[in-house]
Every structure is written in C-alpha cells, then in structure tokens.
Amino acid sequence: MPLPVLLVIAHGSRDPRHAATVHALVRRxxxxxxxxxxxxxxxxxxxxxxxxxxxxxxxxxxxxVVALPLLLTRAFHAxxxxxxxxxxxxxxxxIRQAEVLGPSPLLLSALERRLYEAGLAPADKSSTGVVLASxxxxxxxxxxxxxxxAREWRHTGWCAVRPAFASASLPRTEDAVRELRELGCAxxxxxxxxxxxxxxxxxxARGAADADVLADVLGxxxxxxxxxxxxxxxxxxxxxxAALGA
Length: 246
Hints:
Layout: E1 5-10, H1 16-32, E2 38-42, H2 50-59, E3 64-69, H3 76-87, E4 94-97, H4 105-117, E5 128-134, H5 140-154, E6 160-165, H6 173-183, E7 187-193, H7 199-207, E8 213-214, H8 222-234
Parallel strand pairs: 1-2, 1-3, 3-4, 5-6, 5-7, 7-8
Helix pairs in contact: 1-8, 4-8, 6-7
C-alpha cells in the first residue's frame, strides 16, 4: 500500500519571504523522507491553494492524505479554517488532519539553534534572558501554551524567559525586553516563535531593537523538518506506523 501523501498546509502571506521559507522547509522534509510524497497548499494569498492541491491529488488517483497544519499552536486556523477546507475535499480522498507542531522539545531545540546562530554561546545561557516572541492570538488556549513553553524553557538554564506577542495579546516584545533588563539579566535575546517571515515577525524584530540578540525565524531548521515527519507518522493513518519508519 502506498504511503499517504503529506500535505503541508501553510497560512500564506503577501510577503514573498513567507512562501519561500515554507518551500525551503518542505524541501528539507523531502530530503529526509524521499519515499514520502510531500505537497504544499496555502490557505490564502499564495498558490497552490489547499483545495486546488486536494483536487489535483484526487484526479491523480491518490486515496490517502495526511493534512499537516504548519502552525505552532491550536488556534483558529487549526480549529476552524483548516477543517472547513478539508471538509470540502473530493470525497474519494481519505484525509487525516495531523496535530499542529507545538509544543515540542524539537521546537525548543530549533529556537536555541537560532539563538546560537545569532551569536549566543551555550555558556551564555545562565546570564541571558530570552523573550519568546509569538505572533499572538485571541485564542486563550494558544496564549496559555506560549506561557507554558516559556516556563518550561526557563528550566533549561536561561536567566529568565518571558513570553511576548506581536498582536492580540500582551506584553509586546519591547515590554518583555525591558522587563528582562530590569530583572538584571546581563544580556537579552529575542527568539521569534514563528515559522516564516512576514508582517508580524517584522513587528517582533522592531520590538527587539533594544535587545542584544535577535534570532532568525524557525524556518527550515532541521528540527522543524523532523517534527513535521513526527506529526505525519503519529497521525491516525490507514497504514501501520511501522511502514512509516516510526
């Protein structure tokens, strides 16, 4: 039995950097599992659309699809937008929606990778305060998850970790940077908890103006690519997980 197609569902953006970063991540996923067909669909702004990809797959005779939301929290898009789009898929397709990416230890590893790439060293952890800067959400569940991640990450050796949000919720990145300064951290770093560049990540970057270090977005980090494959394998598939290399 052929393995299910992995359909990575991204939000989309008018910013061309967004789609370029998503495609780079998908290329890395394909390189890790060349035996799995991986497609990309966008909810808005970019092509191909999710609906267009699903219709194309059905026309090609594909039966099984794992739809993986390229999202870090279970907010509105994961709970409403994506299920609605999948509900309109051609009836011949058997679609399983995988879990969103976060939270996961692999994402914390990717965040630290980006901080070290930006100039920090592992020896700096105990004297560095980190702002975990999320895009933000009006969904209380998503906000609670970000706060929980910040608390858990603090226990890995950082001076302090504070959550911040670029929209919908407070505090903003600049406020969290100021709080860490007042707390007495020798240096302050901002770690964007976002997958691709765009309007809100740019707002995070502006809020990091007074920080010592600003990390890059998670993008096609190896840990993120591995996490996509973990979510794919963990989805309730009509094939044994052993067939997926799990």
